[in-house]
Model the fold of this input.
Amino acid sequence: MKSLSPRMIARWRSKLIYLALAALMIFNATAVFAGEELYRSLSAAGKNKESSLFIELYRTGQNQNWQAAKEFQFEGNLRFLERDAAARDKLPGIFLVRSLEGELYIVSIPPDDELKRTGAEGYYSNLKAMLGNKLVFRALLTEGVLGGQKYTFIRFLHPPAQLMLDKIFKIAIIFMFFFVMLGMGLNLTLKDFKLVLQKPKGIVIGIIFQWFLMPLLALGMAWALGFYHKFPFIYAGMVLICACPGGVTSNLMTYYAKGDLALSVSLTSVSTFLALFFTPLILTVLCANIPDITIPTGLIAQTIIGLVIVPLIIGMSIRQKWLNFAVKATPFFSALGVFALLMVIGVGVYTNVEKFADTQRYSLTFYIMVVSLSILGMLLAAFFPKMFRIENYQTRAISMEVGLRNSTLAVTIALLIQDLMGDFYSSMFVTTAIYGITMYVTGFLMILLYKKILPLENQGIPSSN
Done:
């Protein structure tokens, strides 16, 4: 019998490895989409006051043979699906566990007498406080059938524990973003807000374009390209970046574009304080009709107060009392801002790297849509202000402020609320991160285009620019 050559063995080995990887990808994709469909069906049942599915699942979980259940340890997230308000007296809702691989399990909480007998009361006593974290689970899993549908039930052997990396990362981005905004406050004075009275037309037009035009543009693009219905959290990410104020990037790009820097800084200052009201409002209004999405408006408002408003006020107060220190500290905080954006995006990509492999979700159309949102926003803001006789150098500032957002804030909010909202695919983070990276490219492209569409010849440009 003729033996196989080393080359043929290597070739067959490569084919087997390829087939194994392909099978693994198909298995993971199947698990992800099966879990997603199950989550949607359970969510719909919870909102239907006539549905008794939650109670039947509770009973099915209690009747399982837990003595024969298999023990597993894995990482994932907790979710809580509430029942319709009219039916909560019997059962408020059900807890779910979703593994990082996409599989969905129904938490079966043991009866009170069993909890006391086994000493497991603490395993389930504080589950709602864990909804926003990535957790490690050590639990029993068993399958049950209800109405011809197979469900997997889970009971904890130990209290779910937050992943250390997840905890460190969230604490780090909170502290870092706080100091970034404090640094921004070191550059602001009350004079920046007085410009609202001196140049009200430019400020008002800029605010209208920032808070109304861009979110509606995001809605229209996501609807036209099918992301609104098919991938609602990508759409939510588009709205989120448009519901965030401008940042130091728009000020820097306005300087390079020879735009009205004073107007740019004032727009950033005003819009940053308006974000406390507009960011949760825009997200709620534009995402309220999507069944899969519940906006945690309270958490978003708290995040903006704690990470934006408070450090800004502290920074402005420091500048007023210790001007020399504020001037000397500005370069450090500017560098910290760049580092913070790179760190948040870098670590976020590292911890969600498998999400980018989902080419159906993050297709070429997705990337074109995100980049086009920035470009179209700046183009529209470059033409419409001319109808109101805004000077070209001021229009350049407005255009930059509309298209270049505080992406660090958007990415931070996305990472802090994604688990709580059920954005298990990190779609909001991916969308805001891609926007944050590509807006530098689109910003420089617009600077080149301004020479054609917004020429500065024969216009009085302040010497500060």
User: Anything to note?
Assistant: Residues 31-115+129-162 form one domain. Confidence is low (pLDDT under 50) at residues 9-33. The first helix runs from residue 6 to 47.
